[in-house]
């Protein structure tokens, strides 16, 4: 695949920007992919070529691109109240309306607190957990358990929660008080003959042993994505959260659901924890909270946490946490409209109706020799590329085959994300049968081309 010379816009970009999650050397050689506009399921590059955006941007544009209602809501809000804050008892209608809508949709939510990103939401979660345990007289109960391959953000503590090595290397992370337990990936982790239930029970025993080893009086919370996103769209084994929740309850350990990717219909219910059958004490949300149209995140906590936090803040005299843009009126107005649209158009119902076709097309690719596992839930999916189907082998070096596959797909008009050698799927939730056909039609050819390249490179027989 030969590369054309860099355009003027690409050269300007390389000289001006430091790109997240990008190899700078590759960027200098190949230039950035410039997106000029978007509409519906599609984005268009600077030369006008059209691509189906199979990742909803970064897991967030659940209503696709160019939704007229969201655009008009943003325009009206900017004309009415372009900025205000929630400090010192100030408030505004969009913040109140959105919090009420979140409480309506999230069972058990008692209070809502706003930030601008999922990273900030999870950073806030940990501060609230520490504050909560101080408030109830348990100052030693501060350790947080996350999982290998989890993704919870990039701020100092949220990046420590993230269980991906490149988020830690040379950033002096993770910080202390952060622990990691096993990734719940049966294809990779289950023993021969061990079914999903038995595997889930074993993971719960390992978690229990970790808590006992650390001391239950020192462990405060367990944080989990219902379906792990950036770690490879990993769907937990049957019974996993049932087993895990019992361990946490026994040790008085809070359960935080990171719903930044799964929330607001992506799995066919309002939240992923509803689809997977567990009850968290707190929920982090972002991305589809505003359908990606404005930066906003939120944390929802249950009544016990809310009462302890508010009582403690009253004793101190102030709740000493907050962000300049937390509860920004633009984000809140767009978020309230997005949630209203999700309800009015029954987006979770649409996901439940269309997901069987999406999952069938995804799993039909499992027999290809380059695909180790095809997996997914709702409108989330992944193809794990591997040298065989055993679940024990991986490409060396990691990431080259996935990157090639993503490039082959982009050349065929489909944008998906390579996470190492896993190809992730997260199309806008408005996708229909024709969109699913457009998404999957070029994939077999792209797999064949990638397989031929991998064999030529000596990466696979």
TrEMBL record:
Keywords: Aminotransferase, Pyridoxal phosphate, Pyruvate, Transferase. It comes from the Bacteria. Gene3D superfamilies: Aspartate Aminotransferase, domain 1, Type I PLP-dependent aspartate aminotransferase-like (Major domain). The keyword DNA-binding does not apply. The keyword Transmembrane does not apply. GO terms for molecular function: adenosylmethionine-8-amino-7-oxononanoate transaminase activity; pyridoxal phosphate binding. One of its GO terms (biological process) is biotin biosynthetic process. Belongs to the class-III pyridoxal-phosphate-dependent aminotransferase family. PANTHER family: ADENOSYLMETHIONINE-8-AMINO-7-OXONONANOATE AMINOTRANSFERASE (PTHR42684). This is 4-aminobutyrate---pyruvate transaminase. The lineage of its organism: Bacteria, Pseudomonadati, Pseudomonadota, Alphaproteobacteria, Rhodobacterales.
């Amino acid at each position: 695949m030969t590369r054309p010379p860099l355009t003027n816009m690409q050269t300007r970009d390389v000289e001006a920007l430091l790109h997240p999650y990008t190899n700078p050397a590759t960027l200098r050689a190949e230039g950035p992919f410039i997106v000029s506009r978007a509409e519906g399921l599609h984005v268009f590059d600077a030369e006008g070529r059209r691509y189906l955006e199979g990742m909803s941007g970064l897991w967030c544009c659940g209503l696709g691109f160019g939704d007229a209602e969201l655009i008009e809501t943003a325009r009206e809000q900017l004309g009415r109240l372009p900025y205000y804050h929630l400090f010192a008892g100030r408030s505004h209608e969009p913040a109140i309306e959105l919090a009420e809508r979140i409480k309506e949709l999230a069972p058990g939510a008692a209070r809502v607190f706003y930030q601008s990103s999922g990273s900030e939401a999870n950073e806030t979660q940990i501060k609230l957990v520490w504050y909560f345990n101080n408030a109830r007289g348990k100052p030693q109960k501060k350790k947080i358990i996350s999982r290998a391959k989890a993704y919870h953000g990039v701020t100092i503590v949220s990046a420590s929660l993230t269980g991906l090595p490149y988020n830690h290397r040379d950033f002096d992370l993770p910080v202390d008080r952060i622990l990691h337990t096993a990734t719940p990936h049966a294809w990779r982790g289950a023993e021969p003959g061990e079914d999903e239930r038995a595997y889930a029970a074993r993971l719960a025993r390992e978690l229990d042993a970790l808590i006992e080893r650390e001391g239950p009086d020192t462990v405060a919370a367990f944080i989990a994505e219902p379906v792990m996103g950036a770690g490879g769209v990993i769907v937990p084994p049957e019974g996993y959260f049932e087993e895990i929740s019992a361990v946490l309850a026994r040790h008085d350990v809070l359960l935080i659901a990171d719903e930044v990717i799964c929330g607001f219909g992506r799995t066919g219910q309002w939240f992923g924890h509803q689809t997977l059958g567990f009850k968290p004490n707190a929920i982090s949300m972002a991305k589809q909270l505003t359908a990606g149209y404005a930066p906003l995140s939120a944390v929802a906590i249950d009544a016990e946490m809310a009462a302890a936090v508010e009582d403690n803040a009253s004793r101190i005299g102030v709740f000493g946490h907050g962000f300049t843009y937390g509860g920004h009126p633009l984000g809140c107005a767009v978020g309230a409209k997005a949630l209203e649209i999700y309800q009015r158009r029954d987006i979770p119902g649409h996901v439940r109706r269309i997901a069987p076709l999406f999952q069938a097309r995804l799993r039909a690719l499992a027999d290809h020799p380059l695909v180790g596992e095809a997996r997914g839930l709702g409108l989330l999916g992944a193809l794990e590329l591997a040298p065989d189907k055993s679940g024990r082998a991986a490409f060396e070096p990691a990431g080259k085959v996935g990157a090639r596959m993503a490039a082959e797909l982009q050349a065929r008009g489909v944008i998906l994300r390579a996470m190492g050698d896993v190809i992730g799927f997260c199309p806008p939730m408005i996708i229909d049968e024709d969109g699913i056909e457009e998404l999957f039609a070029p994939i077999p050819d792209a797999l064949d081309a990638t397989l031929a390249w991998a064999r030529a490179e000596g990466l696979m027989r």
